[in-house]
Design a protein that fits this description.
Elements (H helix, E strand, L loop, with lengths): L3 H7 L5 H14 L8 H4 L6 H12 L19 H13 L6 H7 L5 H14 L5 H10 L3 H14 L4 H10 L6 H14 L5 H12 L2 H7 L1
Amino acid sequence: MVNRTKIKKLQKHKNSEIRELANAYTLNIYDRDDIYEFFDFTTEPFTPWQQLEYFQLIINRPTAPKADFSKWINSNYVNSIISLSLDLVAHYHQNTAIEPIHSMIKINNTKMRRKMIKTLGLLNQKESINILMELYNEESDVNCKIEIIKSLGYMGNKNEQVTQFLENLLHTEFHTNFRKAILIALSRATSSESILENKIYRYELEKTVPHEQKIL
């Protein structure tokens, strides 16, 4: 095992390939609480491949210490770190991420905004309902609006406020994709969600991780 102090220096090396190797080595070898320290001092964006690599290294080491990844969902960090943190809080179902996501949900980057909406859908907490309904009324991006509808369908199970909101959308949204999403969301919001449905929804969100990493 390479001395941790030496690896830390390499994690700050000017060569990006050396940094990547040092970061990957750290995540793969060490069992210390400081293995995620490079999230804090990284200033250059991760490549899509690096995001996927780090994500896989983290989740495939169940015995390694886990951080509260929500602390990196913050505008002080580059989008690729925020994106990786969103993947991790969704994977570990860290509800501490809800407030940080709420505070950043109006971020200008539409791909990041959509990913945050998806993450709220996966975390599936009622306190996000009003946030998403308010965002829908301000949102201009079609894909983000459809993601809001999908998430509300799951969060709003047996929730009269959500049902009314979705029913009202049927009178204002006439595009086929919107109406399809609204009708599916209404079906989910007004019926008892089965364990199987919840698993399917979690799978649908989680399987987008590599795709999101390719486009961010």
